[in-house]
Structure to design on (200 residues):
């Protein structure tokens, strides 16, 4: 009797250990550009656990989401994040365009981002002519340092509250604040100018 109970408890413990050892898979986001207008392919929203990944070449629109586990963007992807909370930080490398809140898009409100933001090697072309720049980080609260490196397009960092510093290296252009400087706590190594300025 005791041996049977011990065996059953051992199986339960083994199952819990195996289940607990596997991280929850990240949610893949590829809504398509029509999600910007609320058309076919609605934006990613609601509560998302385990993080979000935007795979190479995908177009992801996130609106009104609460994400835990961070956000990763792979080469060639386009990402719009509006009115959302991201816990776990953001890492992007080689994206085509990244928009986190945007003055140019009135429906795209700012975000709350908890964790470091690392944006590198973003492409030089702006996906929408006369629209937002290659990278926009605007109207948001960021609790963690923001690192911008090796980006080839225009970058707007405006009207944010940033705790943890703002760091730039080897970007093609100076940053623009669009007349709305951010409140930054921590070291700042970026230069601000306009979209015609030299890199930093």
């Amino acid at each position: 009797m005791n041996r049977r109970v011990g065996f059953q408890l051992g199986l339960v413990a083994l199952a819990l250990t195996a289940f607990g050892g596997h991280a929850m898979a990240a949610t893949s986001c590829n809504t398509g550009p029509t999600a910007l207008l609320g058309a076919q392919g609605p934006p990613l929203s609601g509560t998302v656990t385990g993080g979000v990944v935007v795979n190479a070449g995908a177009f992801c629109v996130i609106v009104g989401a609460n994400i835990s586990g961070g956000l990763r963007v792979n080469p060639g992807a386009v990402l719009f994040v509006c009115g959302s909370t991201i816990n776990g930080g953001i890492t992007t490398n080689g994206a085509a365009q990244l928009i986190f809140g945007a003055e140019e898009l009135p429906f795209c409100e700012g975000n709350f981002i908890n964790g470091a933001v690392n944006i590198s090697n973003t492409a030089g072309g702006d996906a929408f002519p006369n629209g937002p720049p290659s990278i926009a980080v605007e109207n948001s609260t960021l609790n963690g340092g923001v690192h911008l490196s090796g980006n080839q397009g225009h970058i707007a960092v405006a009207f944010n509250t940033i705790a943890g510093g703002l760091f730039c290296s080897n970007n093609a252009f100076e940053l623009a604040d669009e007349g709305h400087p951010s409140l930054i706590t921590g070291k700042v190594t970026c230069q601000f100018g306009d979209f015609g300025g030299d890199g930093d």
Summary: The longest helix spans residues 2-20.
